[in-house]
Amino acid sequence: xxxRQVKVKRPGASLRVRVPAxxxxxxxxxxxxxxxxSFHSARTILRDxxxxxxxxxxxxxxxxxxxxxxxxERALLVQTGSSMMQDxxxxxxxxxxxxxxxxxxxxIADYVTGNPHPPVERHKLAAGEGHKLYARAHGHYHxxxxxxxxxxxxxxxxxxxxxxxxxxxxxxxxxxxANLQDxxxxxxxxxxxxxxxxxxxxxxxxxxxxxxYGPADASAGFFATPVTGMGTTIGFAVLQVRPGALAGVLAKxxxxxxxxxxxxxxxxxxxxxxxxxxxxHVPIGDSAAFRRALAGETVGLVRHETGGxxxxxxxxxxxxxxxxxxxxxxxxxxxxxxxxxxxxRAMLLGVxxxxxxxxxxxxxxxxxxLTRPILQLQDRVAAMRHGDLDSPVPSxxxxxxxxxxxxxxxxxxxxxxxxxxxxxxxxxxxxxxxRQEQAAQQEARDQKRVVDLLSQAISRLETGDLTARVEGDxxxxxxxxxxxxxxxxxxxxxxxxxxxxxxxxxxxxARDIETSLQGVRGQAETQAxxxxxxxxxxxxxxxxxxxxxxGTLAAEQGMQATIEEVRRxxxxxxxxxxxxxxxxxxxxxILSVTTLIDSVAYQTNLLALNASVEAARAGEAGKGFGVxxxxxxxxxxxxxxxxxxxxxxxxxxxxxIGAGTGAVSRLAECFTxxxxxxxxxxxxxxxxxxxxxxxxxxxxQIDAAVSRLDTRTRQNAARMxxxxxxxxxxxxxxxxxxxxxxDFRTSDDxxxxxxxxxxx
Length: 760
Prior knowledge:
Elements: H1 2-9, H2 15-80, H3 83-98, H4 100-113, H5 132-151, E1 156-160, E2 166-169, H6 189-200, E3 206-213, E4 218-229, E5 232-241, H7 247-251, E6 261-265, E7 271-274, H8 288-294, E8 299-304, E9 312-321, E10 324-333, H9 334-337, H10 339-385, H11 401-428, H12 434-462, H13 479-618, H14 623-742
């Protein structure tokens, strides 16, 4: 009931409500500021890390693509420099020139429209049925050229003559037997690559950028170079490559599932190749970042959105190779890149909520402890105002300002009690003398004025106003009350001012300590992380060196056993070698006859073929010479057939004798070379074993030292974290103390002294 009366008389939030609210509010502001700064720093660090990673990724992709283009160029020059490819182009061209129209029709019917294999497997046909002469040459060269195509990961390999006719294709697509000079393929990537090779000259390799290629129904790029023989250009070799060949180079270093990708972009903004062939090929578009990259500038991490697609963080740099200019681009979805920041934000919000709840609880408890004795004093003053001067004043035993105030109030109660007693005595003597009655009445009025004045000062004191003073015309006998109350209020005000100043000094010192410790803590944590990575790397190195030392020791022991075994078998192999050499000499004399006949037949056939080509070029004047050449070719074929019959008779014995002779010879040479190399390898392995053991001992010592340093660094980082938390706690407590002391009014400028009106 008494609390309710006080609230009715003095509306507004009490200290029990304001103190928890102020502490909780300060905690919310501080924690939100810390959470915001932490979140902003983490996001900045993550973005910088992604930018550095993409810069290194783009540099590695540029190096990888440059190596890939250089490897394709070297491989093409090596292949065109081989006699096999030169002979194949010369022979295919010679067959083609005899009858261009008829040969084109026959080859398309044999290898394209009439190919028994499905379109993706047409390369499996070794020889057609319609054109016998081309089929024979194709059956001889196609396996070798197809092996070059498959080993290089190529989509197709073309041989093109000087007139632009595709006289050979490994894949046998729709472009086989077509003309690149004035046909439908003249303006495709294949036609442009052939014309560029014609203009480049001997020894140069040109590249035509990836563009849609109709016969392949896909995007394709082309490498082309002239093929020379006997110092003159006899045709051209063209390689067809698909963008998928670059996917492995672009995907190197990217983790599956994280959403990051690398792409090669043309100057038109279209995607040439990507590390994610299954993904959507959305063009880059004419963005400011893309134009900067085209101008030769490396673009850092920027946000990119195109056509309502998922927003990405994108980085670009220019790339040039073999006369072509592209842009290398790496990107990652914003959501995937910022997933750690989202998790950190959720964690920080949870921590802020928990800390605010704890701060609010502590503030409620602290406010209860602080305001309970003040409320008790307030109730006691109210009782005194209503005339209860007999009940004792609570909290007098407390050894702080509230206890001192309670003591002064108790003295005031005693004085008021004595004054009241005197008033009662004066009233009893009122009948004795009229003058005494009037004096007693005046005394009562004075006492009432003094009590009212004191009540006003105490009421202002209840609201926290420490500037209240009891001033004015007070009777001399009550002056002690005025002086006592004024002294008590002044003492309380000085105490509160001192507390506020001390709290401010503690708050500033705690914030300085917190700032310093936060920097030291970050440095210690960074040092601890670096040392942990170094320790882990050294442990792996120690294990690897130890394993290498054990392996070299085992290898040395095995090498010695192998040397002994080889020495025991060397004598037997030497005897077998002598015997097989005698048999081989006899077999060689027999086979030399058939070899000579076959060689003569092959040379005769080739000469007849060349004569047929020259007769075809001569036109009508060479028809008779062509008939003679055909007869000579038939005679050469019959001679070759006879040589083949003789060779089949001797093939069984010659094959076995030759194989046995070669095997025994190689075995003998292998044993001799093996013993020499085994001795050298044994000495090398012994030296390696000794060096590996010494390295293992040194690395173990380094590993132990780094482990000790890592342990001490982690302990220092833990101590810095504890000091940082203590500084934060001290700053919070000092702020709360300063806020509590701020509720008291201590300024003299705003003081409202209590004065007594009227004369005594």
